């Protein structure tokens, strides 16, 4: 294992001494510099091998990076070099937007959790695609997911327009595309998970995806990312709709609005989505229900609160085919990736 991984506890102490979003930005800046100097491969090492097939794609291992850490796709190669089997970047919106006012990211160390209300802050689709095109990850066999969303100032009634713009823009550059309709930090976004809105969105996406497939000569898999706060009936309705509309996978789950697991902790009352271990059990419930409804073949990616190899195994036993990390990576460091792969062997 690279010495870089062993140094993370020291780096974390320094990063946790500063504002959470500033630490996030600094980390991405450092990763971008190692990537720009061609150092990332030598510093980070190679990906642990545990091949899996997901949505028709061959993964080096079933441990992926969740969207949100690299919203602009600026550090794909360095992040891939941490050992991930697949990397997902975004969420990108058609137009650049600043996101919600700062401060908007808060650590809850006693719960190993984060609360964020970033609000899809990103540089927009053109800058995102340019970054993706510069990366070498796919050229070296890495699997890349691109996550799309709507602009905050686009009326919810016109959300489909933004998703179609995103789909058309990223399709030539993606191994798979994730449709994010579950962030709690864009007003009314989660209403797109409701029956009528979901039907309209999936119908439009599938029609455009098939047209793009004819143009490109390949059909890009589509996944939908859902919330952990859905009722059982809502999960069932989504599970019924996804295969009917030709969707290839589901990512379960995004952050939660619940604060039951962090009562009494600093920042518990901050608005935004809660991530980390408090989401783990919530996502397991959703994954288990999805698997029962979708059967054994439909692709499920489990995400939320994985801070150990054992929790990765619990996601798989609940019904996930692969997992993604984000908050666990911040608290545990890149060794968590190899720990998860080893536990899943």
Describe the protein's topology.
Blueprint (H helix, E strand, L loop, with lengths): L2 H4 L1 H8 L4 H17 L3 H5 L7 E3 L2 E3 L3 E3 L10 H5 L5 E7 L12 E4 L4 E4 L8 H10 L8 E6 L10 H12 L5 E5 L14 H22 L5 E5 L5 H13 L4 E4 L20 E3 L1 H18 L4 E5 L5 H10 L3 E4 L1 H6 L2 H9 L2
Parallel strand pairs: 3-4, 3-13, 4-7, 7-8, 8-9, 9-10, 10-12, 12-13
Antiparallel strand pairs: 1-2, 5-6, 6-11
Features of this protein?
TIM Barrel; globular; three-stranded antiparallel sheet; alpha/beta; 13 strands; 345 residues
Describe this structure in words.
By secondary structure, the chain is of the alpha/beta class. The protein has a single domain, classed as TIM Barrel. The chain contains 13 helices and 13 strands. The strands form three sheets. The protein has an eight-stranded parallel beta barrel, surrounded by four helices. Strand 12 (299-303), helix 11 and strand 13 (322-325) form a beta-alpha-beta unit. Helix 7 (159-170) packs parallel to helix 8, helix 8 (195-216) packs parallel to helix 9 and helix 10 packs parallel to helix 11. The longest helix is centred in the middle third of the chain and has 22 residues, at 195-216. It is globular and about 50 Å long. The two termini are 18 Å apart. The model has no long low-confidence stretch (mean pLDDT 95).
């Amino acid at each position: 294992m690279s010495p870089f991984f062993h140094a993370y506890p020291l780096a974390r102490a320094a990063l946790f001494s500063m504002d959470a979003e500033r630490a996030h930005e600094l980390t991405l800046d450092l990763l971008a510099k190692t990537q720009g100097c061609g150092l990332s491969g030598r510093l980070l090492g190679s990906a642990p091998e545990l091949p899996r097939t997901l949505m028709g794609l061959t993964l080096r291992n079933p441990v992926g990076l969740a969207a949100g850490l690299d919203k602009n796709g600026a550090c794909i190669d360095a992040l891939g070099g941490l050992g991930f089997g697949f990397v997902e970047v975004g969420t990108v919106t058609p137009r650049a937007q600043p996101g919600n006012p700062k401060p908007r990211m808060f650590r809850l160390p006693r719960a190993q959790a984060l609360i964020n209300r970033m609000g899809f802050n990103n540089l927009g689709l053109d800058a995102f695609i340019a970054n993706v095109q510069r990366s070498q990850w796919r050229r070296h066999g890495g699997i890349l997911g691109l996550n799309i969303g709507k602009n905050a100032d686009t009326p919810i009634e016109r959300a489909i327009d933004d998703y179609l713009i995103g789909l058309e823009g990223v399709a030539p550059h993606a191994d798979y595309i994730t449709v994010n309709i579950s962030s709690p930090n864009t007003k009314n976004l989660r209403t797109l998970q409701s029956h009528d809105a979901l039907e309209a969105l999936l119908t439009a996406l599938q029609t455009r995806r098939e047209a793009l497939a004819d143009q490109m000569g390949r059909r890009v898999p589509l996944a939908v990312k859902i919330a952990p706060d859905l009722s059982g009936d809502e999960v069932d309705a989504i599970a019924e709709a996804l295969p009917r509309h030709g969707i290839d996978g589901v990512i379960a789950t995004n952050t939660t609005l619940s604060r039951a697991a962090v009562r009494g902790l600093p920042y518990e009352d901050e608005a935004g989505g809660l991530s980390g271990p408090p989401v783990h059990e919530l996502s397991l419930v959703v994954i288990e229900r999805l698997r029962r409804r979708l059967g054994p073949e439909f692709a499920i990616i489990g995400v939320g609160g994985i801070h150990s190899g054992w929790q990765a195994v619990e996601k798989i036993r609940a019904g996930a085919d692969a997992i993604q990390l984000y908050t666990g990576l911040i608290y545990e460091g890149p060794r968590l990736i190899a720990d998860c792969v080893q536990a899943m062997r």
